[in-house]
Amino acid sequence: MSVLRHVRIGPETNSSYTNVLVIGEKEKELVRGEVDLSKLPAQRSGTKKVWLDPEEIVSFFYAVAKCHRNVILAEFVRALRKHGIEVRGDYDYEAEWFNPIKGPWVGDFLAELCLYVLKRGYVVSTNDWKIDIDDGEILTMLEYGPFVVPNGNYWILYGINEGAVRWKARMAFHDDPLEPDRPELIDVKITNVCQHGCPFCAEDSRPEGAHADKFLWMLETLPIGTEVTIGGGNPLLFPDLADVLKKLTYSSCFTSVTIRDLDATAENMLLPNRNWGISLTPGVDRSGLLRLMQENELPYPQFGQITLHAILGVNSLDEVRLDLPPLSRYNVLFLGYKTKGRGATFKPSVPVPTFEECEALAHDVPSISSVAFDHLALHQLGMDEAQVETEFPLQYGGSEGEFSIYVDLVRGVVRRSSFGGPEVPVIGCQPDWWRRYWNEVRPRK
Predict the structure, then answer these.
(1) 379 with 335: CB under 8 angstroms?
(2) Is the CB of residue 190 less than 8 Å from the CB of residue 212?
(3) C-alpha angle 92/96/100, rounded to 5°?
(4) Cβ distance 244 to 227 under 8 Å?
């Protein structure tokens, strides 16, 4: 059995005022070589760090809030023993940290991380795990205290700030392909009622449409850490939306609600939800939306995280270039045009930009934090999926349906996505329906 000689709880880094996770010898730092961590999905490509020799790795440091540290340390030690590592020596409880890693699996996650490091013989500090956060600064991954969730043979880390998911990373402590055992994201249609009558609506939603009813139970059995995006129709017209959002939040799921810009009011967006998708309506007055977004300033945005949805052929690039203060940040998501529903007969007339023109928005518009694309948009922009995965390995989220599933709660059917894949009817009431139906519709490599 291997022996880890010290376990220390507290900050240990190059600067005395930064709280980080460090695995390493606590008395000295010796430069002995370099190791590239770019194979970790959460690691920015090309980042390097100097490491200690294996025989000098004797300590594990973890900065954590005072009220949790004894519990987490006990879980960590117990998990290490399962991997054949005995912990001996001193336990140091000197420091506190306001944003610890969160979730029921912290001990197991830290044990896997420690085992990974010990097997490879180097020291790792979160000062070197860096991600672009939406305030334009480079921040360490653990700055906001990520929520850690296991999924198959890898971990998902969610960076949560003010209730909003600011970033997400998949992390595996091995070189094998990622094998999830459940969908990370569930795209939910909760209603087909909508008053706007958009001529390109792929769902053919109408004022006389139906709300979800007998299939709502499907939202009550989701695993902890599931991302749930709620759309319609107009979800604001669903009579029990606030209760649905509260129940999902209490179940430790991360919600996002998609609404039209015409409905983006302070009253509507004070619902218990911190991630908002706002679909842009061509040719309307957006002065109300602009005022709302001006109030949504970092570091404590009143309405959470806002992402503007632009449809290729329907919305122009000028519509997503908003004149906002630097701290009124927002994201942009480009969606492919769907030739279904009313979209089958509507003829888009807005020139479609190039991929490069869309991507440049993140650099040209100070308030835009990130630009993203769904799979249909990438296809319509002429981007091959393999090309995207090669050129943007850290930003690529996976093929359609690989980590997600679409559920129409109105009709009770499941598909790979909202615009493609086989359709499977929901039969019976099974608590782990998300695993069964996802395995039926997801693509196989």
Answers:
(1) no
(2) yes
(3) 105
(4) no
> Cα 236 from chain centroid?
23
pLDDT at residue 30 tops 60: no
Boundaries of every domain in the chain:
2-128, 185-441
Amino acid found at 386: A
CA dist., res. 213 & res. 236, Å (int): 15
Mean pLDDT to the nearest integer, 22-42: 33
Q: Is 385 helix (H, G, I), strand (E, B) or coil?
A: helix
Contacts of 225 (CB under 8 A, 6+ apart): 103, 147, 149, 156, 158, 252, 253, 254
Mean pLDDT of 377-403: 82
* Each residue's pLDDT tens digit, 127-170: 333 333 333 232 333 344 578 889 998 888 787 776 778 777 78
Q: CA separation (Å) from 358 to 131, 368, 377?
A: 21, 12, 11
> Does the CA dihedral 211-216-222-225 come out positive or negative?
positive
The packing angle between helices 69-82 and 106-120, to 10°, is 50
DSSP state string for 65-90: -TTTHHHHHHHHHHHHHHTTEEE-S-
Q: Is the pLDDT of residue 70 over 60?
A: no
Mean pLDDT of the region 296-325 = 91
